[in-house]
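User: Here's a chain of 447 residues. Predict its fold as tokens.
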Amino acid sequence: MSEVRLSSLQLIAYSLPIFGIEFIIVPILIVLPSYYIAHGTGSFALFGTAVLISRIVYSCSGPVIGYLSDRFNTPWGRRKPWMLVGLAIAVVAALMLFLPPRGASAWYFCVASSLALFSFSVIDVPYIAWGAEITRDTAMRTRITTYRAALATGATFAFLGLPLLFPAFGGHNVLQTTVINRLGYVAAVTIIVTVLIALAFVPRGAEAAEDAPPRGELLRVLRGILTNVPMWWFAGAIIFTFLANLQPASVAIPFMESLRLTNWFQGMTMIGIAAGIVLMPLWLAITYRVGKARSWALLLALTASGSVVYFPLAAIFGPFVALLASTVIAAAPAAYMTASLPYSVMADIIDYDEERTGRNHAANYAAVTLLIIRFQSAIAGALGFYVLAFFQYHMDAPNTPLAYFGLYFDEFALPVLFAAAGIACIWFSPLNDRRSTALKERNAHAL
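Assistant: Prediction complete.
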């Protein structure tokens, strides 16, 4: 693997598929469950189960695709052919999701979202492995993941903003059926265009020059991952980081509905996303200055503070100002912290494994990383709805004080607890910048 330096255009071209993927995944995670609850049939608990099942499918398919991508080489490499297969499935699934039949059930949502999330496994496991293989240069890897994070954030911004800007969508609110239907057509075209551009204009990376892993190596690969100590700490960090971000997002629409602020959902979310895009260079500069681990812990603490500031601000300025401030503070570092830093750290862990084993298992590590992220996203999404069901909270209906307590606990308390656990995993792990140099030296001598 060489220290290849990609041009800005190549970095953009490589990052484009994540724009197409996130244009569909973000609605699955945040908007579509609430849309189906509002327009379909089923309770919070039933849709929580549908979310859990679909995201377990998403989680479990990743390692299989990772192994197959590492195992089978083709004249076009190990990564790009899989992305084409996933693309074909994704187009069908996107149309199913965004154009459901009237009164679609929780089980329809479960099947359609499972198919969509499976297709993204087929695309993004090889895609992320491809990004780790393009270059060994650490700074370039961070640039690659930062570009990818920026495009991922831009996709969310586009999904929420298009109905606000263009009358052709038939409305402004993403909970309207006409708006969702027309966004589905945009999603299908977007995923096609973005994936094909990346496949056409970005080099394959070092994987094309290597032999595929021999048959029967899967158990050895898994054993290597399980005995990779930095990987365990890394896993804990990403589990709690993503829980801290996805937990409040999963119940954002019900919470805003309780305040009669649902019409502001897109606007507030877009302001938070815009802050994340504008501040992305600052987060990158902080990472270069203090290291990946310290910047990760710092930004996770900043995200948690968004939940903390809501209550004093609400008492002084009212819920609208408090929610806007809370959203911006929590969202500003979120994209960089979830879409850039973990994958940059993952690339370093892949190098560590390659030193130990003498082989490149990038797709397997990408698959395991995505498995961890996706599994906790299943937990976060389902848990958010299960908490509401447990406290018997209902949208568009009278609720008891206990139900409102459950809603606020769901939206604010759980994210802070998850963030604290994530900071602990980062701070006391070998990923800690104070120990990284000694760890590398110890690995080099021992292995």
